[in-house]
Structures are given as structure tokens and as C-alpha cells.
Amino acid sequence: MELPRRTFVKAITWQLLGIATMTLLALFQSGNLIDSIMLALSASATGFVFYFIHERFWSKIRWGRRA
């Protein structure tokens, strides 16, 4: 079982990777760095919250685990 702190750190590192990727993709599409960063940050904030909730939910389900 994972501690909430570990899930939190995993979510942060995942979101940093996502921010960088989305910023580059949005920059390629729009050509505007500030708009690209703002889009990436807003999508990342939403994704972060749902990823954390999703991980905590699945940590309570025993299906597919071995004791």
C-alpha cells in the first residue's frame, strides 16, 4: 500500500512532465509562449487533482494484488 505522500510526489513528477510536453505542443501550434504555458498549467492543475484522487481510489481496491 502506498502512503499518500508517495502518491503526491508521483503526481507532481508526472504533472511536471505533462506541463513540459503540453507547453511544447501548444507552442508549436500557437507560436505564443505565454499562452502555451497558461494552457499547460491550467490543464495540469486539473489533471493533478484527478490523478491524485484516482490513485487514492485504486489504492483501496484489492483486485489484482497479491498479499
From TrEMBL:
Keywords: Membrane, Transmembrane, Transmembrane helix
Transmembrane segments annotated in the record for this chain: 12-30, 36-53
Alphabetical list of Pfam families matching this protein: DUF2061 (PF09834)
InterPro entries per the UniProt record, alphabetical: DUF2061_membrane (IPR018638)
Superkingdom: Bacteria
Domain named DUF2061: residues: 9-59
Protein name: DUF2061 domain-containing protein
Species of provenance: Ahrensia kielensis
